[in-house]
User: Which sequence fits this backbone?
């Protein structure tokens, strides 16, 4: 079943979302720089993913490859020389107008400052030919779902939810991974 909605921000008082709309840093908050990853950033990306407590952790080799081969569609957030967040993604081989966002993670002490939204903006804004952003997010991952709903709303985009992978397709214990299709990402 497909479900299409205009993205609407979630009520922050009822959400434990991992991110908030971007706002200028508050006094005492360190400035975050967002940039393409360098090959050496792969290890830090792996550590941020490991420490997130939510993401499926890939091998450290996979994060090194993402930083090396997919730097155009990945970003890292850096505070005082330390990688504190990342987004990994790739253009679909059969449709390069669609970006698949594989993972978004922000270190716990930097959540709630708009870092994840900045990471997504950086990748999408550097890709003017994009028609849509797609990702998979388990129903149970409330924070990640809230991030994508808020991000899409801020960009004036719509979200369609479609089935993709069911729990029985995974060889190990895993929940369903429905696909979110975010269209109109350049509307803002």
Assistant:
């Amino acid at each position: 079943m497909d479900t299409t909605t205009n993205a609407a921000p979630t009520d922050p008082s009822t959400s434990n979302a991992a991110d908030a709309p971007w706002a200028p840093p508050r006094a005492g908050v360190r400035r975050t720089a967002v940039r393409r990853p360098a090959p050496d950033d792969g290890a830090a990306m792996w550590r941020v993913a490991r420490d997130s407590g939510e993401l499926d952790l890939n091998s450290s080799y996979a994060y090194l490859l993402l930083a090396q081969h997919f730097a155009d569609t990945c970003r890292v957030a850096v505070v005082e020389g330390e990688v504190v967040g990342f987004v990994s993604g790739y253009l679909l081989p059969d449709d390069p107008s669609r970006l698949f966002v594989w993972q978004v993670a922000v270190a716990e002490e930097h959540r709630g400052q708009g870092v994840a939204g900045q990471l997504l903006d950086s990748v999408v804004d550097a890709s003017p030919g994009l028609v849509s952003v797609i990702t998979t997010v388990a129903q149970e991952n409330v924070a990640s779902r809230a991030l994508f709903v808020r991000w899409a709303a801020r960009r004036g985009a719509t979200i369609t939810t479609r089935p993709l992978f069911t729990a029985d397709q995974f060889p190990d214990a895993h929940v369903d991974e429905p696909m979110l299709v975010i269209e109109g990402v350049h509307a803002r």
Q: What stands out?
A: The mean pLDDT is 83.
